[in-house]
Design the sequence.
């Protein structure tokens, strides 16, 4: 990587070729791009399919695409053709990282797999995001976020106790896969400073979905009991769930006895913390329903937002349940720089805050470019 000024971003001078589409890969490369990496997004002639995943649209481009492709340059390339393959090799000559989410075997078919490229570009870090990896019982099969949620147990523990298994309401597996891919790339870049060599990074939706099973996996390992759905209630902590107030639900996340005593004091019911049924977390779990009933009666006299603020300031984690528009408009959201605006563009800011080399908005998501290198 070339030497650059520190205020250009923590990854300034790092060149990334991004062949990925949809979400996991693009989210990974946007993280890198936000922090200064020079990311070239290469799309097939028809473009990343998420350009059409609307409405809503910004111009002719779906908001879905806009949300994960800022700070990137764009190019269109047909890698199934020799001219496209030749141009990609030219671009990789001075690249640090290649990110792709082709079905395993596709790039190999074109002579662009890791083993094909390693001889020519020994320092190249090749990150593949796939559903299941290239081998094993499910190797090479296509993977999607919702299917990973279903297959890996996430849906089985999400939803009401008496309801159906439910998909998490956002593509959590894709996004965590993108995060893990970004972490893997940073690890490999760090190791390369010692060895001078690149390596292959094998990041799958399947693995990442399984990694999210905390605390359900350890609970199962050490109890032998299959975890069940419990709605918003935590399997190990009480009270840790949504409860009704006079103005809508509030989430209480009471993690220890001191917080529970402060909750009781704030609700003008100090005797609650002295009740033997609620003396410890284990006691509160055993008497969860009576605790819920007692708290609901007390909360009925309060407004959710005001009480949540009062509890937070008293050291008790609590929050009114907000809608997306309310969360994005919250004063603290603005204070943290978590909404970016430039012209017609709006986006969620980077949650990764560095003091000297912060993330910046340098480029808007690229328009679909005309095909390159196809004579």
Sequence:
């Amino acid at each position: 990587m070339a030497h650059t000024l520190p205020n250009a971003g923590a990854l300034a001078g790092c060149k990334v070729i991004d062949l990925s589409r949809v979400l996991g890969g693009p989210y990974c490369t946007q993280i890198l791009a936000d922090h200064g990496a020079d990311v070239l997004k290469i799309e097939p002639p028809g473009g990343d399919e998420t350009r059409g995943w609307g409405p809503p649209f910004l111009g002719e481009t779906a908001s879905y695409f806009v949300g994960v492709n800022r700070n990137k340059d764009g190019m269109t390339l047909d890698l199934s053709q020799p001219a496209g393959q030749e141009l990609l090799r030219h671009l990789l000559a001075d690249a640090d990282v290649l990110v792709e989410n082709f079905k395993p075997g596709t790039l190999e078919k074109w002579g662009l797999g890791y083993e094909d490229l390693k001889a020519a570009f020994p320092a190249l870090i090749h990150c593949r995001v796939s559903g299941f990896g290239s081998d094993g019982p499910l190797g090479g099969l296509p993977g999607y976020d919702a299917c990973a949620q279903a297959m890996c147990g996430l849906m089985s523990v999400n939803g009401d106790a008496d309801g159906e298994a439910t998909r998490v309401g956002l593509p959590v597996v894709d996004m965590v896969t993108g995060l893990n891919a970004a972490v893997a790339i940073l690890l490999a870049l760090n190791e390369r400073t010692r060895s001078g060599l690149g390596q292959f990074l094998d990041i799958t939706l399947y693995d990442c979905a399984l990694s999210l099973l905390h605390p359900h996996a350890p609970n199962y390992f050490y109890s032998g009991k299959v975890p069940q759905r419990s709605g918003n209630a935590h399997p190990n902590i009480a009270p840790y769930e949504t409860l009704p107030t006079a103005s809508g639900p509030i989430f209480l996340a009471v993690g220890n006895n001191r917080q529970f005593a402060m909750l009781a004091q704030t609700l003008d019911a100090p005797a609650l913390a002295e009740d033997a049924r609620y003396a410890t977390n284990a006691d509160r779990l055993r008497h969860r329903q009576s605790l819920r009933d007692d708290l609901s009666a007390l909360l009925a006299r309060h407004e959710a937002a005001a009480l949540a603020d009062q509890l937070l300031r008293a050291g008790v984690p609590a929050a009114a349940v907000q809608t997306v528009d309310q969360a994005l408009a919250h004063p603290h959201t603005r204070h943290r720089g978590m909404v970016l605006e430039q012209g017609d563009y709006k986006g969620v800011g980077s949650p990764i805050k560095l003091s000297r080399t912060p993330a910046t908005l340098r480029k808007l998501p690229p328009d679909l470019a005309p095909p390159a290198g196809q004579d």
DSSP finds 16 helices and 13 strands in the chain.
